[in-house]
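PROTEIN DESIGN WORKSHEET
SECTION A - STRUCTURE
LENGTH: 184
TOKENS:
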């Protein structure tokens, strides 16, 4: 790793720490695992950054761009539904939640009709899109680690949602998948 890569990592890691500081004190919070997934993804980004636009016609680059583009589409679809139907409110006192996550209504339409965690799905696609930029063994292992951390974050978030929304969320879990429609 070169000096500039280390500086980029330290700077962005510091920003992630500032954004996530509330979650870091609570290992039972989804934000705790999300933070570490972000950190692993940041390492991958720093390692694969120099290869971002190299060998544009290579199969691994094309796979990467499909994953990255799909990541954005899933992210925007999820954010749109949350903003439109989630009714974020300050009355929800979960300190670890970002403002847009403080939904008071369970969102089950749009992309949420198929997957419960479009934001995590987007992050999974992002992680694997970064990994495929230069798919070395180390980077693929990091992508796998990030995926496990995101799965743990989603499991914690489901526990939090069950506590907040109760049986409505339990019913929603029965008719939707975590990340991949109809599959997983």
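SECTION B - SEQUENCE
RESIDUE ASSIGNMENT:
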């Amino acid at each position: 790793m070169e000096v500039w890569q280390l500086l980029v990592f330290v700077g962005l890691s510091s920003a992630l720490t500032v954004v996530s500081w509330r979650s870091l004190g609570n290992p039972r919070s989804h934000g705790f695992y999300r933070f570490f997934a972000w950190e692993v993804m940041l390492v991958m980004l720093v390692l694969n950054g120099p290869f971002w636009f190299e060998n544009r016609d290579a199969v691994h680059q094309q796979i990467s761009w499909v994953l990255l583009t799909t990541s954005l589409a899933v992210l925007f679809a999820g954010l749109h539904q949350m903003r439109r139907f989630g009714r974020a409110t300050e009355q929800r006192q979960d300190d670890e939640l970002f403002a847009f996550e403080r939904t008071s209504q369970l969102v089950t339409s749009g992309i949420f009709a198929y997957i419960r965690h479009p934001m995590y799905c987007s992050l999974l696609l992002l992680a694997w899109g970064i990994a495929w930029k230069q798919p070395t063994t180390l980077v693929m292992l990091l992508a796998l680690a990030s995926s496990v951390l995101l799965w743990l974050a989603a499991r914690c978030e489901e526990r939090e949602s069950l506590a907040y929304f109760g049986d409505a969320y339990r019913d929603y879990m029965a008719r939707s998948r975590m990340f991949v429609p109809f599959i997983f």
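SECTION C - NOTES
Helices lie at 3-24, 30-48, 59-85, 118-131, 137-165, 167-175.
Residues 3-175 form one domain.
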